[in-house]
Amino acid sequence: MNNELSQPAFSSSAPRAFQAIFESPNWLVNILWLAVAALTQGLLIGQIMLMGWGSDLLAFRAGRPGERVPDIDANRFGDYLAQGLWPFLVLFVVQCVLGAVMALPSIVLSIAGAMLGEDGFWLFLLFVPLLMVLAVVANLVSVPILIRGMLTQDFMASFDLNWIKDFVRRMFLELVIQGILFALIAMLVAFLGLLALCIGIFPASGIISGAGMHLFAQYYESYLQRGGMPVPSKIANDIVDAQVL
């Protein structure tokens, strides 16, 4: 067996990504800012800021598996917005393309089922497994592209096909298993948030968003452990390190 594909000392974990949110002494303040980001995602600012902080997280954790991560610093919101802009545009393009691709088979099944009438009812039963498969494929494609976007801070450099294929080849099982596990835990967290007089959904959304960034950092750490190709980061190390207590 190829040594570079042997089991690494570090691997990603969806439960650990959620746990990481509470590891900092300032976890309550971090969740507050993450909740604000979740509330303002409709205005785009929240999503851009989240990706900007995620870029810091990726840059700091690269090659340092298990290290503490930078807290959210209100004084660096301008930096977060600048760092999150390119990843946001990358994600927007990817979502548009994947959305169009994923919609096509669903439309075909819908039309075929309608034309066949009662005989085509079984086609509608294919929707759930089809959507699950498409969601897994979308995750496999979008995760490495977004990771590159957050690290390179460059639109075109985010779509390096050779690097993306190498990332998926080394991380395929982790992306599938941890992606599904993350979705299940996220649904549980959201449900618990709704139980808390419904207003709990806002901090719950912040926790889910923050855990997602932690999982991305873990993916990249695990990829490097497996002998993957490092991505040059344009985020200055002294700015990133200055956030760590």
Spell out the blueprint of helices and strands.
Elements (H helix, E strand, L loop, with lengths): L13 H7 L6 H13 L5 H17 L15 H40 L4 H4 L2 H26 L8 H35 L5 H25 L11 H5 L4
Helix pairs in contact: 1-8, 2-3, 2-8, 3-4, 3-8, 4-6, 6-7, 7-8
Can you put this structure into words, describing what you see?
The protein is mainly alpha-helical and 245 residues long. The protein has helices spanning 14-20, 27-39, 45-61, 77-116, 121-124, 127-152, 161-195, 201-225, 237-241. Helix 1 crosses helix 8 and helix 3 runs parallel beside helix 8 (201-225). The protein is globular, with a radius of gyration of 19 Å. The protein starts with 13 loop residues before the first helix and ends with a helix. The protein contains nine helices and no strands.
